[in-house]
Structures are given as C-alpha cells and as structure tokens.
Amino acid sequence: MNRRPTGSLSLAKAITGFLQYKAAEGLSPNTLQSYQRDLKLWLEYAGDIPLQQNTTALLQQYFVWLRTDYKPRRITRNRAALASKTIHNFYISLCAFFTWAQRELQLPLRPGEEGTETDVEVEQAPNEPFTK
To answer: Is 47 within a domain?
Structure first.
C-alpha cells in the first residue's frame, strides 16, 4: 500500500479507507455493515478531527457516553440503554479500525496503548449459552 503520514488525514477519510480495505479483504456484508454503523457513530461523537487527535481520553468519554447518555435510534422506538455486549461490539470495531490505522497509515499508537493506567476498559459481556 502507498503509505503516507497521517498528520492531516481526517477521521472520515480514514474510516472510508478502512471500510474499502475490509471490503477488499472479502468480509461479509453484515460485518462491513456493523463496522460502518459503529464507526459512523464514533465519527458523529468525535467529529471529523484529524486522525492523530483521537486519544484515549476521548475514547473513554465516548464509552461513558454510550453507557449513560446515548439514546439508540431503534425501529421499535425502544430507548433503553445499550447492552454490555453491544458496547463491547463497538469496542471491537474501534480496535479493528485503530489497528488498521496503525499498520496501514503508521498511526504511532492506537488509543489505549499510551500506558496501562489510561487503557480503555470495556466491560466484557458474559457468554450466554444457546440452550439452558
């Protein structure tokens, strides 16, 4: 891949590049749709800032917002808070995005890698059995 510094690359353009890259990898349409939905919400929250301005603190604020103030837009109009598993899925999407950005765009560190004290922590949803 033709790599270039990420200094002026906007978050929106990086997300577009990530989605194109993942589509070229042959991921399922459902996975691509999940990435697109999750990253669109991240973009709405963070704004179209330069990619390198994504920080651990900003991610932590985002996950607090998802847990406390975010009101999902559902077809059923149910405004209940997101489940822990759903928040974990957002975390997985962001990890995939920042891992790609670190590898392909030479983003120095993924947010959350600055040190162990400031790592983004997401509550792991318990695994539910299919049958009881």
So the answer is: yes
The number of CA neighbours under 13 Å toward the Cβ of 19 is: 18
**Taking 50 as the threshold, does the pLDDT of residue 110 lie above it?**
yes
- Using alpha carbons, select from 114, 101, 1 the residue that is nearest to residue 42: 101
Q: Which residues make Cβ contacts (< 8 Å) with residue 60, sequence separation at least 6?
A: 118, 120
Degrees to nearest 5, angle at CA 123 with 67 and 34: 70
Count of domains forming the chain: 1
**pLDDT tens digit sequence for 80-100:** 888 899 999 999 999 999 999
Which residue range forms the structural domain that includes residue 71?
11-113
Q: From CA 128, how far away is CA 16, in angstroms rounded?
A: 34
pTM of the model: 0.76
Q: What is the pLDDT of residue 106?
A: 83
Q: Which residues pair with 10 in a beta bridge?
A: 50
